[in-house]
Amino acid sequence: MPTRDVAQESTGFTAEERAAMKQRAEELRAEGRKGARKADGLQAVLDAIAGMAPEDRALAERVHVAVTTTAPGLSPRTWYGMPAYADADGRVVVFFQDAGKFKARYSTLGFNDAARLDDGDLWPTSFALRAWSPAVEARVVDLVRAATS
Predict the structure, then answer these.
(1) Are 45 and 64 in contact (CB under 8 A)?
(2) Which of 60, 62, 72, 140 counts the most CB atoms within 10 A of its CB?
(3) pTM of this prediction?
(4) What is the CATH number of the domain that holds 50?
């Protein structure tokens, strides 16, 4: 009878997923501390962006500028260690997931259910992001504007 190699079987979460969950737990603890401020969220986002690989960082910086300029009412914060932007109720509306976070071939611009992107019975909630251009910027601005209208 062949022996099972438990190490080769999928046992659940990847190391990257476990790290993201730990980051989220720390974010929740920080939010619960007295004195948590909007400035803390902004600094956390800037720190998350600074820790990215150069290609991802360049995209994240552009997304950050596009979101904060288009929707100044959203508050920067991290969400599972990713740059994210929340509404007045603290719900994440839009987030940026760098390609390096989960060893993906592209970064992702994602929208949660607080985003108002509804379009009938089916609509996209995340977008692959490989490079920044004026056309990409215009599309991101349009999406953020729609998500927060």
Answers:
(1) yes
(2) 60
(3) 0.79
(4) 3.90.1150.200
